[in-house]
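Summary of Year 1 activities. Much of the first year was spent building the evaluation harness for sequence design. The harness presents a backbone, in tokenized form, and records the residue chosen at every position. We chose the following record to illustrate the format because it has been used consistently in internal testing since the harness was completed.
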């Protein structure tokens, strides 16, 4: 048997690709899509902002009560990560601890950017709010204080729109937000504790505008008894200042408003806050 040199073998392989029936050449590039998702816009007109919704539904038949659902704020930035977590982790409940598969409702804005600073500054912050200089030169002023209207959008407009597209278990719905989004999660918890069964606030900006959120929390504490499953998360530089903050003139004020303070206000640290 004659041995073929490496150069000869490569030559034969190159020739095969040119023959009929050989390897298929790659086609034109196509946009990538997230499996199991649809996207649509809600709102607009009469001064109402437009929000872009990405809905992910797991494969297979929904449970009898409907899918548990995770609603994500800052959906443009987080939806891909969340869907991959569900697809990979929820299929292995024994290893991941995730008890069932779940739908994901990502609430974002009609932009290709990860964040819409104008939109989220308005939607996620408690009233009365203020006006700030534009985020970018030539842009619109930043307005805050729209959390009440955004909460109404989630419960009265978005929820029915999702129900028309897939069955949802009303008793198993979580809301997740971080930073300004975490601030909104706690505002919504204080004003509509029945709207979601689980509340997840990562690094909530409770210091924002003189800690206006705390008046809502105070009302929540004094209200009728209820129970809410709450997860509060704080990063390393919420227990101490980041290196670049150590020399800032407002160092002491920053220390005083670290997000860990809210953990002491809301509960026992065990992931459940009751009142």
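For this record, the design step produced the sequence shown next.
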């Amino acid at each position: 048997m004659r041995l073929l040199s490496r150069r000869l073998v490569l030559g034969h392989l190159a020739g095969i690709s040119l023959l009929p029936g050989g390897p298929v050449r790659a086609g034109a590039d196509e946009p990538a899509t997230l499996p199991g998702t649809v996207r649509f816009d809600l709102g607009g007109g009469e001064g109402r902002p437009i929000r872009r919704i990405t809905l992910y539904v797991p494969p297979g038949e929904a449970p009898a009560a409907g899918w548990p659902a995770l609603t994500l704020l800052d959906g443009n930035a987080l939806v891909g990560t969340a869907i991959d977590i569900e697809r990979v982790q929820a299929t292995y409940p024994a290893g991941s601890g995730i008890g069932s598969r779940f739908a994901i409702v990502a609430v974002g804005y009609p932009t290709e950017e990860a964040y819409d600073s104008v939109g989220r500054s308005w939607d996620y912050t408690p009233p009365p709010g203020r006006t700030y200089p534009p985020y970018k030169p030539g842009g619109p002023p930043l307005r805050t204080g729209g959390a009440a209207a955004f909460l109404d959008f989630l419960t009265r407009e978005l929820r029915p729109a999702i129900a028309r597209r897939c069955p949802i278990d009303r008793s198993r719905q979580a809301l997740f937000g971080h930073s300004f989004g975490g601030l909104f999660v706690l505002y919504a918890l204080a004003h509509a504790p029945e709207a979601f069964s689980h509340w997840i606030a990562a690094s909530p900006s409770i210091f924002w505008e003189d800690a206006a959120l705390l008046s809502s929390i105070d009302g929540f504490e004094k209200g009728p008894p209820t129970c809410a499953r709450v997860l509060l998360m704080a990063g390393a530089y919420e227990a101490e200042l980041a290196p670049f903050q150590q020399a800032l003139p407002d160092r002491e004020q920053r220390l005083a408003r670290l997000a860990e303070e809210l953990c002491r206000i809301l509960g026992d640290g065990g992931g459940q806050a009751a009142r």
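The first strand starts at residue 37 and ends at 43. Quantitative recovery figures across the full test set are reported in Table 2.
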